[in-house]
């Protein structure tokens, strides 16, 4: 399955709070002697380059992680292949029918070994149920559930997995002379912790929310509080920083709600995603986002935030 075969319709209208997901499965041996049971997952179609047959790799002894299976050539690239079942703690039997989903996001191309793919679904972020204790996985890479009637699809955040392979950076910390309040929205616990740590180190006071819906309720609650106390909204929040892909409400819809409000519209909004394409950037621009950056550049957020706040972006 090539990119051209799966990309029809991915450029959904701005503000529709929708996305398209590629549904795939990982077979799991739950009891010895019984047939494997498929576990259904989904990822954003926009991150998928193509789907290829398994290269039948044997993991090297010096693998940096148990999921690392080696590298393969593809076009003019050499890309790593990761066994996704290892991350999800599933006992997946390897067969000749397995496939590799080749993804491109966060400025990197990576292959993920799975048992197979099924179909593509268009869903609204409002249909994505936030993760809860009912999910039987030990990873926060699962960011939501999609109810398809007779089964659930678990939505994966592959960026969370790739952060485990990224080396620690000793970057110089940007510090604000003034302590600003920043509202953060992200559905990934790993990314939330990373952004929160960076902001605290830079002398910001982060207000953390788990998705766009929670962020919207929080900021409109702060607006109401400011109005009741006769204060300006900037005494409670100075800037909004949000992921784009989130359950219940995405970053585009959150930004539109903020920029359509006569009180909140002066607050600068930074959107980030692992896939800032020209088309997606256009969508962000159309809802009034001030800056859009890719997730590998999250370390630049504090300086960008300071420049936007002190530059009077609106």
From TrEMBL:
Positions of the CheW-like domain: 18-167
Cross-referenced PROSITE patterns: CHEW, RESPONSE_REGULATORY
Domain Response regulatory: 181-310
Xref: InterPro entries: Chemotax_regulator_CheV, CheW-like_dom_sf, CheW-lke_dom, CheY-like_superfamily, Sig_transdc_resp-reg_receiver
PTM-bearing positions, type 4-aspartylphosphate: 243
Coiled coil: none
Keywords: Phosphoprotein
SUPFAM superfamilies: CheW-like, CheY-like
Domain of life: Bacteria
Classification via Gene3D superfamilies: 3.40.50.2300, CheA-289, Domain 4, SH3 Domains
PANTHER family noted in UniProt: CHEMOTAXIS PROTEIN CHEV (PTHR47233)
Designated name of the protein: Chemotaxis protein CheV
Lineage: Bacteria, Pseudomonadati, Thermodesulfobacteriota, Desulfovibrionia, Desulfovibrionales
């Amino acid at each position: 399955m090539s990119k051209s075969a799966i990309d029809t319709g991915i450029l959904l209208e701005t503000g529709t709070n929708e996305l398209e997901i590629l549904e795939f499965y990982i077979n799991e041996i739950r009891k010895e002697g019984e047939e494997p049971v498929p576990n259904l997952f989904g990822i954003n179609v926009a991150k998928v380059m193509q789907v290829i047959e398994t290269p039948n790799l044997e993991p090297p002894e010096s693998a940096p992680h148990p999921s690392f299976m080696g590298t393969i050539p593809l076009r003019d690239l050499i890309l790593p292949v990761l066994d996704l079942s290892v991350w999800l703690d599933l006992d997946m039997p390897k067969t000749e029918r397995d496939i590799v989903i080749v993804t491109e996001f966060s400025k990197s191309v990576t292959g993920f070994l799975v048992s197979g793919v099924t179909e593509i679904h268009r869903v609204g972020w409002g249909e994505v149920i936030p993760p809860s204790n009912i999910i039987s996985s030990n990873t926060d890479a699962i960011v939501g559930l999609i109810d398809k009637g007779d089964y659930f699809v678990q939505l994966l955040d592959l960026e969370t997995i790739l952060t485990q392979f990224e080396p620690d950076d000793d970057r110089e910390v940007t510090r604000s002379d003034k302590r600003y309040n920043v509202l953060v929205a992200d559905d990934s616990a790993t990314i939330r912790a990373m952004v929160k740590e960076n902001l605290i180190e830079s002398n910001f006071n982060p207000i953390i929310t788990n998705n766009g819906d929670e962020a919207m309720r929080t900021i409109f609650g702060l607006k109401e509080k400011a109005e009741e106390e006769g204060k300006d909204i900037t005494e409670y929040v100075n800037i909004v920083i949000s992921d784009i892909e989130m359950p219940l409400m995405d970053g585009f819809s959150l930004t539109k709600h903020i920029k359509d409000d006569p009180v909140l519209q002066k607050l600068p909004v930074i959107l980030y995603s692992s896939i800032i394409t020209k088309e997606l950037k256009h969508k962000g621009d159309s809802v009034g986002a001030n800056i859009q950056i890719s997730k590998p550049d999250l370390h630049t957020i504090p300086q960008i935030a300071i420049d936007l706040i002190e530059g009077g972006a609106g």
